[in-house]
């Protein structure tokens, strides 16, 4: 057999192309290439080994308001989330810091064990907009009927069950009521999953036992895994280093303030007027489904990034007025006369150089115009401007030919509404209040349309 191997080796050498690398001057490299085993380049994640005894000891040393003892069922879920499905645990870790401060403060307010916050991981994976196959929604997976019991309502545009604050407060109240009902937190968690009726049935069938593991065999199948999964996550998130979980890019919450606009509007319009990132508005307000706050929810508080809240508070009057100043489809009889439109277009432009801290909304407010007008006059495709940039502004306080104010035959002074106008803008131009203009013209709302004549004095 030795000669057979020798022949095969010789044939293999003959088949190797005589490149610059494999030349007769470098026999060592050839020999190395023949003997070297080529392995695929895989990236392996180190997963530490652990024993039942080690995990049991760690759990015993944990200081929690909801102590638990390890068993085979819990241990199997610990293995699942640390070995077989590490990606789910990593996803949860990336979202944890975004919601846990809210959860913890809410549990403390209701004088409940803070560990209950881990239940949301099992319910939703910390996704405020997730929907179950049976129609439960949000971080705490409320069904519509249960949501209404705790003041969370649903329509085509807004679903309060996806509001982190409202749903967390409702979950705390509901869980606390279940604890008062059964006197045991683990049983209360089971009732949260399958309903108090199924838990009472399990207690009866078990002969009157009142602990989770006492009624375990009589609970619905899904609920039998529900509490052990919660306890597994409680252990894992308190022993991340022992299982080599090192989060590189955590997601932190956006600091915000709540502001009421008391009107229906679209979030795109708010983003345009205030230069707030639309994605930030969506992230802060997950309960708004179609970027639309309808008339039925006009009084809801909207979360605004804290770094924009001061600007918005200072300019709330014109921003709020502009939010409701939607484009109007005009009839022929409502169009501004040509001579007035030409006069408006031929106004003398004011040149403005952008300074540090300027945004379009602030510039528009200072000059009595709208953001849309600024963008049209300067051919801007977005709200982004830079220091030193020159803008053309057709000031609303320019010469008489630049306004649509005139004296009527009755002696009163009137103003013809231009596209982009709002009552607030008109009031500032003519030193009046919005309410004064509404009284002079018998207006019941802030809605006005181009071509409309208003009495202003």
Task: Write up what this structure looks like.
This protein is mainly alpha-helical. The chain has 21 helices and nine strands. Strands 7-8-9 form a three-stranded antiparallel beta sheet, with no helix packed on it. The longest helix has 24 residues, at about 85-110. The chain is elongated, with a radius of gyration of 34 Å. The termini are far apart.
Distance between the termini: 116 Å
Catalogue the unreliable spans. Answer: 1-36, 326-346, 396-404
Overall, the morphology is elongated
Quaternary structure annotation: single chain
Rg over C-alpha atoms, rounded to the nearest angstrom = 34 Å
Number of strands: 9
Strand order of the largest sheet: 7-8-9
Order of helices and strands: HHHHHHHHHHHHEEHHEEHHHEHHEEEHHE
In percent, how helical is the residue content?
Answer: 40-55%
Give a short summary of the structure.
With 457 residues, this protein is mainly alpha-helical.
Keywords:
two-stranded antiparallel sheet; elongated; disordered N terminus; 457 residues; 46% helix; mainly alpha
């Amino acid at each position: 057999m030795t000669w057979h191997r020798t022949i095969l080796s010789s044939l293999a050498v003959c088949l190797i192309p005589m490149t610059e690398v494999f030349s007769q001057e470098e026999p060592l490299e050839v020999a190395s290439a023949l003997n070297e085993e080529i392995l695929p380049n895989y990236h392996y994640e180190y997963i530490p080994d652990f024993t039942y005894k080690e995990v049991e000891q760690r759990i015993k040393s944990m200081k929690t308001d909801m102590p638990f003892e390890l068993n085979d069922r819990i241990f199997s879920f610990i293995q699942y989330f640390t070995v077989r499905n590490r990606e789910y645990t990593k996803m949860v870790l990336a979202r944890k810091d975004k919601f846990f401060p809210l959860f913890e403060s809410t549990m403390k307010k209701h004088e409940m064990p803070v560990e209950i916050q881990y239940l949301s991981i099992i319910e939703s994976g910390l996704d405020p907009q997730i929907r179950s196959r049976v129609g439960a929604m949000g971080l705490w997976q409320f069904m519509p009927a249960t949501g209404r019991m705790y003041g969370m309502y649903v329509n085509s545009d807004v679903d309060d069950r996806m509001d982190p604050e409202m749903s967390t407060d409702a979950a705390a109240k509901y869980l606390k009521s279940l604890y008062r009902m059964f006197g045991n937190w683990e049983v209360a968690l089971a009732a949260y999953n399958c309903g108090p009726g199924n838990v009472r049935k399990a207690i009866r069938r078990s002969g009157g036992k009142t602990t989770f593991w006492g009624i375990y065999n009589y609970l619905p199948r899904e609920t039998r895994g529900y509490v052990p999964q919660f306890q597994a996550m409680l252990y894992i998130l308190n022993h991340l280093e022992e299982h080599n979980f090192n989060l590189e890019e955590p997601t932190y919450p956006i600091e915000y303030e709540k502001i009421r606009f008391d009107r229906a509007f679209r979030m795109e319009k708010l983003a345009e007027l205030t230069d707030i990132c639309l994605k930030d508005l969506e992230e802060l307000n997950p309960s708004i489904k179609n970027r639309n706050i309808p008339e039925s929810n006009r009084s809801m508080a909207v979360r605004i990034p804290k770094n924009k809240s001061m600007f918005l508070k200072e300019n709330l009057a014109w921003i709020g007025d502009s939010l409701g100043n939607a484009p109007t489809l005009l009839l022929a009889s409502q169009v501004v006369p040509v001579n007035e439109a030409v006069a408006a277009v031929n106004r003398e432009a004011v040149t403005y150089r952008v300074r540090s801290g300027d945004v379009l909304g602030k510039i528009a407010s200072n000059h009595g115009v709208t953001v849309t007008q600024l963008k049209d006059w300067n051919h801007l495709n977005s709200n982004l401007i830079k220091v030193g940039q020159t803008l053309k502004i057709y000031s609303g306080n320019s010469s008489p030919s630049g306004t649509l104010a005139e004296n009527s035959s009755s002696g009163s002074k009137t103003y013809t509404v231009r596209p982009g106008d709002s009552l607030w803008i008109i009031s500032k131009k003519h030193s009046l209040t919005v309410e004064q203009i509404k009284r002079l013209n018998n207006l019941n709302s802030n809605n006005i349309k181009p071509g409309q004549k208003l009495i202003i004095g």
